[in-house]
Each structure stands twice: as C-alpha cells, then as structure tokens.
Amino acid sequence: MPADEAGRSGGRLDGRVAVITGGARGQGRAHAVRLAREGADIVICDIGEPIGTVAYPMGSETELAETARLVREQGRRAVTVKADVRNLAAMEEVAAQAVAMFGRIDILLANAGIAGASPIAEMTGEQWKDMIDINLTGVFHAFRAVVPHMIERGYGRIVATSSIVARMGATNSGHYAAAKWGVIGLVKSLSLEVAAHGITVNAVLPSGVNTIQVHNEVAYRAFRPDLEHPTREDVMPLFANGPGLLEPEDVSAAMMFLVSDEHGHMNGETLTLSAGMSASTT
Ligand SMILES: NC(=O)c1ccc[n+]([C@@H]2O[C@H](COP(=O)([O-])OP(=O)(O)OC[C@H]3O[C@@H](n4cnc5c(N)ncnc54)[C@H](O)[C@@H]3O)[C@@H](O)[C@H]2O)c1
C-alpha cells in the first residue's frame, strides 16, 4: 500500500470510523489497535469505575487514555468517552460525540462485558441484574444508539462479543451464559431488520481469552473449586492439555474479518473462535 503524507500506509479500513465499547484494555484495546492499523479512527468508551458485584477492577480512565495513545501511535485519531453501557443516554452521547468529531460511524464493536461466578441456587438478584444489564442490555444500548445513524447513511458493520458459552450451559455462570445466548438472539434479530440498509450484524464467540476476565481470583476458584486460594499457577495447567487460551489479538483478527467489506455477505452469523473447543459442541 502507498504511504500518505503522514507516512501511514493504507489499510482495509481507510477513512472508516469505529466505536468500541469496553475499550480500555483487554480485547477492546486489541480491537482498537488492530482497526486503527487498518486505517480506522476510533471512539472508545469504558466505564472507568468499579461495579459492586464484580470481583476484579474495571477498566480505568488511565487505561482508556493508554488505548487512545496506542491508536494514535498507528497514525489514527482517537476519542475516549467515560460511559456505562447500562445507560442508554450515555451510549447515545458516545454516538453523538463520534459523529461530532469524525462525521460518521461505520463500525460498532459491542465488546464491553463482565464475568462472575455463582451457582444459580445462591446467586443474588444484584449479581443477575448487573450481568444482564451489562452483557445483554448493554449490547442493546450500543445498538440502539448507533443503528439509526447507520440506517440513515445506508452502511454499517456491527459485531457483538458473545462467547463459546452461548453454545452450552455454564456451571456457576448461568447469568453469563444466559446473557451471551441472549446476545445471539439480539444479533440475529437486528441483522434481519437492517440487512436492506447495507448493515451487517454478527457475533464472535471466543473461548477463554488471556485477559483479567479469566485472570482473577473468582475465576480461578471456579476453575479450581478444590483450592481455597487458587493462583494463576494452579489454573494454567488446566489449559495445557486443552485448547489453551486465545490472545486478545486472535479475536481482533475475527473482528477484522467481520467488519471488512470482503465479507459483506456474512450477516446474522456467529463466528466461533475456540481453538478446537467447539469440536465437542453442536
Ligand atoms: N476473557 C475471556 O475469556 C472471554 C471469553 C469470551 C468472551 N469474552 C467477552 O469479551 C468481552 C471483552 O472482555 P475481556 O476479556 O477483554 O475482559 P476485560 O475485563 O479486560 O474487558 C472488558 C472491558 O469492558 C468494560 N466494561 C465492563 N462493564 C462496562 C460497562 N457497564 N460500561 C462500559 N464498559 C464496561 C471493562 O471496564 C473492561 O475494560 C466481554 O464481553 C467478555 O464477556 C471474554
């Protein structure tokens, strides 16, 4: 690809604008950097404060700023917004800022999410509510805020992050499984509604990804209920004989596949990324 005056080489997303929820770190950050490398300007939002029922810290404003720096390092523009996907008005503000700064939104990655562990018989209403409000309703809010703009422009690429868990039940994570199954219903329904407007809507279903969502004490206890304080060293051998953990960048590659125009006929699909784990599911 030829370089422009700023020395950037062209990419598959030149001139595009992407909104990414939960972009302060982890997979969202990797997606921001990958899409920027392909030429997109990026609007990233994250909550930037703790959630009472989640045992590990949420992405901070400092991490959000670091994602923006990494995007700019790719020669692209970045805007950060502190916003909670549980709040529709906040998501509408994210969309409004994207349009005000960059004039358009071409891509939405509804990536923000939390994890938690509790058997259903002991789950509190608050644990259930936070999970559904963030991992399912939060995806709806992102869709609701961005889709009218995409319909008006007659173009859009939307990908929501579900999970391999949306192909099975999940012991001690029934709320997570229910939310991630729900995301697929939402994705397929929206894809039917907007296909005629040049908009595709798909879901990625990763298995375990190497982020804080699996590297925290509650997750470790779910993997090793036999230990009182399991550590990373106690848990990692469990992955050694199986498919292993994905890296965030592996999921970014799937995102690129779904947002690029080469795959504009992928619509209403679920793209599983499980390093072989899905070989034992239908
Ligand atoms: N890590 C895994 O094993 C795995 C596997 C499959 C799917 N997923 C999903 O991938 C997505 C990204 O997770 P990750 O692995 O990068 O974990 P992560 O915790 O590093 O990233 C999630 C980001 O979402 C943000 N977030 C959470 N609640 C929010 C809210 N209410 N409003 C705005 N932002 C909020 C967090 O602050 C964090 O920055 C999530 O939807 C997760 O459920 C993760």
How would you describe the overall organization of this protein?
The longest helix has 29 residues, at 125-153. Strands 3-2-1-4-5-6-7 form a seven-stranded parallel beta sheet, with helices on both faces. α1 (26-37) packs parallel to α2 (61-73) and α4 packs parallel to α5. α4 (125-153) links the parallel β4 and β5. With 282 residues, the chain is of the alpha/beta class. Helix content is 42%, strand content 13%. It has helices spanning 26-37, 61-73, 88-102, 125-153, 174-194, 217-223, 232-240, 248-259, and strands at residues 17-21, 41-46, 78-82, 107-110, 156-161, 199-206, 270-273. It has one domain: Rossmann fold. Residues 21-22, 24-28, 46-47, 58-59, 84-86, 111-115, 134, 138, 161, 163, 206, 208-209, 211-214 line the site of nicotinamide-adenine-dinucleotide.
